[in-house]
Amino acid sequence: MSNFISNSANQTLKSRLKTLIAKSEELKFLVGFFYFSGIRELYESLKEKENLSLKVLVGLNVDKAIWGLAEYRTGTYQNEEEVFAFFESIKKSFNTDDFDTKEFYEQVRFFIKLLLEDRLIIRKTEHPNHAKLYIFKLEEDQVGRNALFITGSSNLTKAGLSTQGEFNVEISDYGVEDANNYFDELWRRAIIITEKHALKEKLIRVIEEETHLKQLTPFEAFALVLKTYLEAARRKDISQSAIEKMKQAGYTPYSYQIDAVGQAKAIVEEYNGVIIADVVGLGKSIIASMLAHDLHSRGAIICPPGLIGDKSKTTGWRKYTEEFGLYEWEVWSMGELDKAQKWIKKAGNPPRPRLGNGNLRRLNYCKDSLRILRKVSSSSAGRIL
Q1: Which parts of the chain span the membrane according to its record (predicted)?
Q2: Per-residue pLDDT for 70 more than 50?
Q3: CB neighbours of 222 closer than 8 A, spacing ≥ 6?
């Protein structure tokens, strides 16, 4: 067997590491950066060795560049800054599409188990180090040698272990003690990460809560879907006069209300109607009034008797029609539907109301505080809101 490993078709570093892991009781890896794609390549081999311990000494961090993940020297920081930078590098490397797989979720649980059992120990070099060194302490039944090491160009990544052209050499007949001493001295001066309980918990928390592994509650999943939908929803511009009317009436133009009006206009345009729904006190009536202002047509408001308002237009829906300039809108009680129907017919004598055809609109004030705006008749008539 050749001592040179170049990730050729005959032998990859991954296959050689897997063979050596099966015969080892301790591993010492000095690598440029800790990238889970490399560790996961060795998942099956590590899983089979229940008593194996792995020391990983990280020389650099990782940063997400335009063309993927690239190495960078962090310079000299205080320990806390180095640890924070390392945690950020872990988070960045985990939060890529490569790790959003079923296998990742299964494998990462195993590596968290190694961390909790102190079988995977991670330290950060005191100063930036670009070396790649893989040391294997072999089991006692291995005849003729008790240790060996591999050094060369391969980093602990999927590409470095198998798919990318590299050049590494395996050595067992000389220099093993020197390689061990070199690693141990760097290890002695390195910044401790997983051996400190608080830092280990922080690392596991970063992996479990700030990466693809984060478990979502049903409510969080719903909120994420809703947020994505709202951000993707089409919006129409609203008139400056509607905003000015709002200010003149003494209302604060909150962005969520402005956004709601713009989205409602787009929905009305596409679906001939819209439902405005929210908890009590967030201004559904104001949103509906601004929307009515921007529709630029006649209309009717149908609501419970207690919400009609006084004739001086200082309360209820009559107040909103005054504040938002809805001078051609009529307010009707839900108990006066017959009168409202006569008004509609007089306004344009439209055919029988039919959902999705025409431009009359209706606003229902229901017990659950829903506002329903829909088209119900032909374009020759006014609007019911």
Answers
A1: none
A2: no
A3: none
